[in-house]
TrEMBL record:
Location in the cell: Secreted
SMART domains per UniProt: PbH1
Primary subcellular site in the record, as a coarse category: secreted
Natural source organism: Polaromonas naphthalenivorans (strain CJ2)
Isomerase found in the keyword field: no
Swiss-Prot/TrEMBL keywords: Secreted, Signal
Domain named DUF1565: residues: 107-147
Protein name per the record: DUF1565 domain-containing protein
Region ranges (Disordered): 1-21, 55-116
Amino acid sequence: MQKPTALAIRTPLTKSPAHPFSSLRISPRTLRNAAILVAATSTLTAFGATEYGNRWQRNRYSQPTPTPTPTPTPTPTPTPTPTPTPTPTPAPAPTSSSTNNYYVATTGSDTNPGTQAAPFRTIKKAASVVKPSTTVHVAPGTYAETITSTVNGTASGRIRYVSDTKWGAKLVPAGAGANTMWKVDGGYTDIDGFQVDGNGGTSVRQGIYLTGGNSTVKNSWVHHVALNSGCDGDGGAGMVADQGRGAAFNNYDFVGNLVHDIGGSCDTIQGIYHSSSGTVKNNIVYATNYGIHLYHDDHNVDVVNNTVFGNRWYGIVYGGCENAYNNGCPTSGVNIHNNIVYDNYGGITGANTAVDTGSNSIKNNIVYGNTKDFELSDHAVAQVSGTISANPQFVNYIRAGGGDYHIKNTSPAIDKGLSTYAPTTDINGKARPLGAGIDTGAYENY
């Protein structure tokens, strides 16, 4: 059955009282469904009067015949995304700038090639095969051996011996009769991060001994050397740079080391002994005889930002040959700056010293709590200024070691050092200065 067509009157029909409707005719009678508007004519007759025309509009109630949906264009099959080229695995960052690398471990063998997968067993084996631009990586462990390294590096290709873990590679005496635990005759050599334990024996007189020139010991820990050796005039030290008068090689650096319990009661065995040119910076030295000792041909040495305490004799000594003012073996160009020299028998001394007048300087040191803070002979001429005579205020001071030798926030050492000759970092590798100036001593106050 067809649904009735709805009609909408475009002009409203009104019924006049004077002319009532007589009839209403709609033509055509049937309006077909369509998708468009259809007009119909109606005739209204009122009591035989003239017909009045009107137009009716059919409302489109029905759904128009939909326009056929065009057949969609098939979506093209996408071009397969190309398989990305794998990103190459980055090469591991080199552990050093060296061209050659050898490896040593307590699990290795000296018949191995010395690679990381097949390391040597001893450091001395590695020392026998190195050449310029070589780094020897030593794994943690105890190495009972006596080492003499004789191969020279170059200024652009140093030879480096590195403990993979700081103080993890530990060198101990290889039985009785060893006088020196590690002697470095080759120049341009670095020893970095080792522990050297003399075991308090009687025969070992030197921990690390540099003779090759342009060489460095840094970040290392040397202790309990020659504690029971007695005083026989042979001398010794935890660390030594000894070229003697007029030597061809110079420039030895001791940087960021911990040195203690050296020499027992014998005053001829020192903590750090230096008789050439170079630097002694950011070291902590205690429980030795002379803490830092410059002697014989000491010249152009910067002794800066060290913490020296609790030594049986003097904290810092500088001086030339015996009766040097008569034999042409002067001390010159020595700069002793920014050190803490505390609670030793003596503080800073310059004895038996011939000098180039005015070329040595002792500046901005904390020298306090020593039996004698300064003892300078008539010939030990130096520019002395900026000395602070006050307790350095360590966080936890223990004279025999085992304390905390950082400085407190209230320490008079803070910002009181000179930047001239000062290292750019402290013993922990933290940047200097933190505040307005360099802090004195081995630690910057963080």
